[in-house]
User: Fold these one by one.
Assistant:
Number 1:
Amino acid sequence: MRLLRLALGLAGIALGVVAYNVQVDNLGPATTSTRSLAIVAVAWAFLLAGLIAWARRPENWLGPLMTAAGFALLLRQLRYSHDPLAFTVFFALSELSYALVAHSVLAYPSGRVTGRAERALVKAGYASMFLLPLAVLLFYDGSERLRFLDPTPRESLLLVSGNMELALRLQQVFVVFVWGVLATLFIALILRRLARATPRARRILAPLLLAAIVFALRAVPEVVFTFVERPPALLYEYLFWWQIAGFIALPLALLAGMLRSRLARGNVSELVLELDRTPPQGVRDALARTLGDPTLEVAFWLPERREFVDDRGRIVTLPRDGADRAVTRLDHEGEPVAAIVHDATLADEPELLQASGAAARLALENARLHAETRAQLAKVQESRVRIVQAADDERRRIERDLHDGAQQRLVALALQLRSAQRQLGAKADPEVDRLLAEAVDELQVAVEELRELARGVHPAILTEEGLAAALESLTSRTPIAVSLDVSEGRLPAQVEATAYFVACEALANVVKHARASQAAVSARRRDGVLVVEVEDDGVGGAHAEEGSGLRGLADRVEALGGRLLVESPPGRGTRVVGEIPCAS
Amino acid sequence: MCDDSGMTWTVLVVDDHPTFRASARRLLELEGFQVVGEAADGESALRLARELEPGLVLLDVGLPDRSGFEVAEELADARTRVVLISSRAQSDLGRRVRESGALGFISKEQLSGEALLALLDRAA
């Protein structure tokens, strides 16, 4: 295959020399040697880019396609020959070179033309660019000058019936159909593809924009000059050189774009060095840079749980391969290690993905262990939240039971005893009346104690009216002056309950131990965190670790992802601060 | 319906606990009130209040179908005197007692004709 490519390269050089000479010898003053050389240079650019692409990516058809386009562009020049056979053959085949160029562009970068419209356009291009020049040859009798040729007559070996008017009309049809209709569709399809592409794909597809411009540069003058007089020579000269520059740049841009991944593969060795000093959380970023895909995500396989998680231990559901996203699984010794979710364009470069994955394997293993630990921590955290939730539910249930059961019975009993008192009235034995009155008083005390107990378990006002009302009720019952500053509005039940119990425990400590004359309670939302704060002017010297009350509350606050701080310098009061994340 | 000069007060008792309703009826009737009806939920309370036009509605704040505070607001809008009751303390119920339009609040265990008359006198 290497020899074949070498032979093709040498043949291309030789053919270029022939093509140059044929044009210069046969067009005479209608052309210049510089222009002939420029056209050969375009063909050689395609040939060179095609052969390099073919050598680097032999499995990709883009290389052979560009090589064929290069040859076709050289052979195209042989139509200028006055030899009847050469003229007939190469005039008939001349326009196929543009069909091959367009085919190469539409097949970029995978080497395959995807999309129904694109395939139809390629077929229409080949058909029209072969059949229409062929049809011209059926009627060309040399009595008039053909477009693109000098006035010297040539002989068509395919002449059926001399009809120059028809031959010229067919050339017009060719220009309008190929350079008007097909070129417009070609540009539209490129623009559509660019518009629909992901950001990474758009970078790779950038050479297509150049192709669109090049074809537009060619198509517009072709169509316009078919119907209006030729422009001044200077303008025509400018147009020619712009076209040449574009057509030389196009194969080189296609080649560069195609070899991007080759260059990126060079980054893999840099990746190895980089990963050496990258913490587990940085592996994703390093891979994203190497693969040029900022949207890349890494999911780690946890064998025990048989599921993928992200670097924070959260479960990840891998997407199905689609137009935008694709998944590459990285294995080691038959066991999955990780999965890379990436831009679908990377799926065309499996070697690069696997090479990067292999280079990052150790780091990925490391990151996987890290993710596993995070996943376990996340599970523990979830479990702590569930425990708090279950405890709160239980507290609410007990409070309801107390309210609906014992409390109601005691209330009914108090009313019945009071009814007995009224029934007996003045006739009652004073001793019985006194006993009944005492029983009613005792029952009222019992109801109040039960109420206090229920409040401690879970205040109903917290569930029904929210944190602000519950704190208002709490501070109003506290036997020292307490100022209150609290945000209105509801928060998740666990957050409200935790904040309430922090305030409740802290205020109970103020009353019991602080010897304070006043206290202040506040509960304010700041940046997604509820900060509940209780401050007093008492003796200080409290510690969160002492006693189970504040320690238990610290556990509860931490279970919700928050923290509890106690500042209590001796003689300077106490400040208890609970910071509780609240999503709403 | 009611009386400001020695006539009998008519009362509608609204509570979802039948034992409480029976106890309250007996006590109030012994203390000179006339209990004209009983309701176990908010909707029945509103209907009976329209039908019976009691002088006073004794209304529990916790009803099975809707909040007693809402019922109190509707009754107060219809110029019906409402006294809220609960086995909880008023401080456990927040500001909604004040905002409900009721004449006042009595903890259930402290219910008596005397306590009711004191509230009615204060409101008069």
Number 2:
Amino acid sequence: MYNAAWVVVLLPLAGAIFSFVAETARRAAQLCMAFVAGSLIVALIVLGDRFAHHTLSGLPNVSALSYFSVTLPSTGTETSIFPSTFGAVVGVRVDNLSASFMVLIAFLFLLVQGLGMGMLRGDAAHRRFFWLSSVLASAMLGLVASPGLFQDWMALGAMTAITLLLLLHRWHREETAAPARTAFLTLLGADLSLLIGLVFLVYRLGGAISLSTVPGGFTAAPFDDYRILDPIWQNTLSGAPHTSYQTLTILCLLLGVPVLIRAAQIPFTGWFLGLREAPLPVLAAVSVSLLGGVLLLARVYTLFLSTLHALSVVAVIGAAGAVVLSAACLASRDIYRIALLSVAAQLALAITAMGAGGYSTGLLIAFVSSPLGLLLMVAAGGAGRAYRTRDIHLMGGVWRRMPRTGLALTIWALLTGGLDLVGYDAVSAIFHNRFPNAGHLAGWVQGLAGGLAMLAVLLTAMYAGRVLIAVCAGGPAPRRGGVVERITEAGPELRRVALLGAAASVVAVLIGLPGVSGFGSGRSRVPGLTFTHWVFYGGIKQDIPFVPLALVIALAALAAGLAGGGLVARLRWAGLRARLHLPQISATPALRRAGLVAARLAGAVSGELAALDHGLVEPLYDASGEGLETAAWSLGRLRGRRLGIGLAAMLAVVLILVGLSVLAASGHFPVRTT
Amino acid sequence: MSFLAQTTTTTGVNFPTIVFTLAVWSATVFALIALAMPDQTPEQRARIKAVATSGAGAALFFSIWATQTQAANAAGGAPGGELLEQHSWLSSFPFPSTYHLDADGLGLGLLLLVSVVFFCASLAAWRNDRRVKLLSFCMLILETAFLGVLVAYDWLLFLFFWSLPVAPVYLLVRGFGRGHRARAASRYAIASLLTTALLILVAGLITVQGNLRAFDMGTLPTLPGTGQAVCFWLTAAAFLLAMAVVPVHSALLDLEEDSTGALAAVFGAVLPTMGAYGLLHVTLGFFPIAVNYSLFFAALAVVTVLWSGVMALRADDLRRLIGHAGNVLMGLVLLGVAGHTTISLTGATYILIARGLAVALLMLAASAIQERTRRIRISQLGGLAWQAPHLAAFWGVGILTASGIPLLGGFFGELLLFTGAFPAHRWTTVVVLGGTLLLAGVLLWTAQRVFAGAEHEGFSRVRDLGVLEITYLGILAAVSLFFGILPAHFDTLFMNGATNILYPLSAG
């Protein structure tokens, strides 16, 4: 049955290939969607089988093919550096994590393609979007079901290339060129970092560890499988002669950077935020691919567990990222930008929880927040198209004019604001502060991460409330060319996608409920099969305990955040009306005064954050995309003489190195050779 | 076991093994046929083109045959296998020479690359109607020369094949080049003759000092320390000049810039590859002292990657830019040499193949661009994807192959190369990796400048690729995809080849 996971991975790819023979673009799109739907069905069957037969064991089933395998010559000294049989496998690894996330990924890509059906009709690149998104789905499913880091690297590399092609959807527009290039180069940098990590892993650990102690009978190269997930290997790792604190720290850095880049976390957020000129379905597809970062972190979690302070750094970076991204959400008026920031902010909370030892909790947050992010994008797409703007302050009255889109936005806002329990999960994981290997965060780190996480939860509720009130309440702002009567409900395809997204979000929240335990006894016992009982690290199940304080904090944040966000939205609306010399909202003078003070305060804070984001963070990323032009322009201005001097200097360096090399050959200069 | 491989039949008759001979000389046979054909009318010229394509096709067929035969064999890739050909040639000479053809894994891989590139170039040459006979003849002779270098296991034979391209390349550049073609042809001829002179010197030194009393390359010379060092530096200088690495890269870049169409693809993809083959096969394989100079190769790799990357950034001529990109990838090969492990050399073999495919694809695409727009300067191009989306797609495949994106030709080589080189040169490996990022950025930026942007008024009549162009570009893209998806098909072959280079006594 587990070989069916191959089908899950390959079906979208087959759909992409078959779409080329379809006569019309619409038929090609339908074909792609049908194959992704087929993949979803098979993924559900695999999940069902896993439920039926391996409910609690957690042991993986691996079906793998040798991708390459070479035997090193016994003559040289290479076998002291590398494993004597050097190779890697590709295949599918079905464990509880991959079985669950394969369903999620296939479902999300079905939604993305549904969004494409609704929003890209008549688009010149209609067919291209569908086959590319199918290939991206296949690559992501390959990543989820990957049996080892080698396949992870391959899948992520393929995702990089497909992301570039997707971002070039509107290749003829100048404003999309630099962001696409920035995104590609940043993601390629992540892939290269992962490649160096793999190389370093082979070099430092490949020939040093006795592989016979590893369970599962794997005897090939270290990235053949996820041995680093196994506790026994972890014990071996800590006792290996070549494994030092420095080695593990370097490995964490090399593998941690791709995690942060892939998940668009600070300080690598700019590549993702710069994409907002791309069509919404493309943004949705790319935002789903951010899950890859969290999944990579989950797969190399043992490494982080084994390294002193690594998880503390992850927790603090995640929490700080959640605060910054949520604050940027609060400061933004562009609903597409808010959607992008929201996805990254939620993943930041997932990374925070994993950094605090909540492996299951972090994955649960990623699981719950992904459909929610997509739900916002669907709703934003419908509203943006109807209002012909992306500025939330120019929207309003969605509840009245677009009731179904309004309902979707309400569900999104309430869930994101706190009812999805993401905030609770993150805060409770920090309060719980217990790693799967019985370690924990230092007290001050726990305090710092906890404080930041609570602030992030409050800000999250605020921006959710602000978006809800600004977009759904009141009426549309009067503006040149705006005709209120033209604002009508989104088309049936978008409505269907929104409905599915909302239903999936609610289901995802329900399966993650904390404190649910099994009941009954004997054969009639019903296990407490929530997400955290199902996806866990190694053999250690992590229940999310019911922490009343965390729940109180989360609910308080929800209430305060929604109220605060709503107030900010209404007062901004009032300010706008005042500038346009329109009738003011009737309110008592005291309330108005208090409101204006609050509005000024919120406006100042959010304005500062927006200025920071626009003035500092974005130009840094733009620079990496436009840096090539700048460098070429600067080089063009250099005179030939300077180039000649440069070349002469480089030649001098070469000559010096040649001299050193000759000295080394004669034994007068120490040099490392193999 | 192939039909043409050496087999013992039930009647006890041994068929001679002639696969390598057929692969090398079939092109020459077709060249002679083409030479004898009239070329007055369009029909006659078309027949000559058909003969030329058949010659390249025959060479490709036998190259695939040889490679497949060895790839299917667990010990394939080590010299002395079933396809070995050795016959007495100049036996009454003081230093006897034999007709010795053989190939290790490296040679077999490059045999495949060269024959694929030439086949695609012969298809591309169908668009030329000027001096058809000269073009066909010279290209087929050139193919014979390159294939001969890859399978020659006798110094005399090797030097013959090595010096053979000088005249055809000179004639082709003078006859079909553009711009400063006379200067480019002269500079190439001087560089090529210089490398030949250096290699003749080395062959003489080895034969005399090594007490070989023969020109056979199958036997390792036993040179004293100084003699070995001298030979090492002489061969390294010759082959580095042929590889056109920084700082001796100008001659090849001029050649690429001032050539047109199929010729630029051949020169860019194959000429430096021959130098790399020589460096790996001769310099590393014959002179174990090379391990002591790995720092030199590492430094040269860094300089080549960074310098060529920066120059690519500044280049405005499309072909020159591709030439610089090819040089960056050649820097990666140098890193593999510096790594001096079987893994890094296997990676270098894959990189050489990916480099050849990417450069050939991009050069042919650049020619298609120039043919349509009459422009080759990047600053004068833009928005071409409006009219030529297929051309843009093939260009994309080329840059993704060069960037080492998974499931295309370059990625697997990068993995092996960096893994193998890292233990010896950690920081160099990281810097070179950074150089590949620069290369990817430059190629992507160029693609956007050439193909993206608003529709160009002057290009409104530009047409997309035709069937012929899609065919030869498609072949190159398909081979790149094949090497990306199924690299394991050749891993043992190339690994045995690398083992033979580093540990010649234990190979096979």
